[in-house]
């Protein structure tokens, strides 16, 4: 697994110039935690109009646009404060648009070439995850790509560490992780063809994995 494109990461972070120092510190930490190097091949392989679920301030999406000139990103976020913060620096990243929206309520069908769910689904109760993945499927064109990057349930010590991390960052809300295999089964059950499953946590304390899938005809 290669490391991230550090110059691209710096440019993505620098695009928030003018944002509060606390926001910029949070975004720097976000870039440090997400295994961007491990996702590099998948991110560079995307093309066209990308839907990104729960994108927050859009830092991962701005990194994606720095390393991949072939995409524009439609970011969906439920936290109004993060949407507002992203909007204030939007001119520095014109190919990333962050808006307040719930993917399960979008009145779109087959409008996107790819969809991302990066560290989102484990914040959603298990019984709602399938509904969300099905909504992402409906947003994709035939042969559209889905990338789910999430947190594994094993090894146990890494899972517990991530629980501590999420408690500090997200507050007392419960997290709902699935194993990589269980997430792949969920994605397949929602109507996708699973292309591959990779664990990205050989080093470091976070049990990352990515599920790569496509919407079939």
Q: Given the helix and strand composition, which structural class is it?
A: alpha/beta
Mind telling me the C-alpha Rg?
16 Å
Q: What is the subunit organization of this protein? A: single chain
The number of distinct β-strands equals 7
| Count of individual helical segments | 8
**Strand content bin:** 15-25%
Give the CA-based shape: globular
Helix-strand sequence: HHHEHEHEEHEHHEE
What average pLDDT do the residues reach?
A: 94
Major sheet description: 7 strands, mixed
| Biggest sheet: strand arrangement | 3-2-1-4-5-7-6
Helix content: 40-55%
**Straight-line N-to-C gap:** 32 Å
Contiguous runs where pLDDT drops below 50 for at least 5 residues? none
Walk me through the structure.
With 217 residues, the protein is of the alpha/beta class. The protein contains 8 helices and 7 strands. A 7-stranded mixed β-sheet has the order 3-2-1-4-5-7-6, sandwiched between helices. Strand 6 (193-199) and strand 7 (208-214) form a beta hairpin. It is globular, with a radius of gyration of 16 Å.
């Amino acid at each position: 697994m290669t490391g991230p494109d550090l110059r691209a990461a710096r440019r993505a972070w620098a695009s928030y110039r003018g944002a509060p120092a606390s926001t910029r510190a949070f975004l720097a930490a976000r870039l440090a935690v997400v295994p961007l190097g491990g996702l590099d091949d998948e991110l560079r392989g995307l093309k066209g109009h990308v839907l990104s679920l729960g994108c927050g301030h859009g830092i991962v999406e701005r990194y994606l646009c720095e390393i991949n000139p072939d995409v524009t990103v439609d970011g969906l976020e439920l936290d109004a404060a993060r949407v507002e913060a992203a909007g204030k620096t939007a001119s520095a990243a014109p190919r990333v648009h962050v808006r307040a929206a719930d993917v399960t309520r979008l009145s779109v069908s087959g409008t996107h070439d790819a969809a991302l769910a990066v560290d989102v689904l484990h914040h959603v109760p298990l019984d709602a995850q399938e509904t969300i993945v099905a909504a992402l499927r409906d947003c994709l064109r035939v042969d559209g790509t889905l990338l789910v990057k999430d947190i594994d349930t094993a090894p146990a010590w890494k899972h517990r560490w991530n629980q501590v991390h999420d408690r500090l960052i997200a507050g007392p809300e419960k997290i709902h992780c699935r194993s990589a295999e269980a997430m792949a089964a969920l994605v397949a059950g929602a109507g996708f063809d699973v292309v591959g499953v990779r664990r990205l946590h050989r080093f470091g304390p976070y049990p990352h994995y990515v599920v790569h899938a496509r919407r079939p005809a």
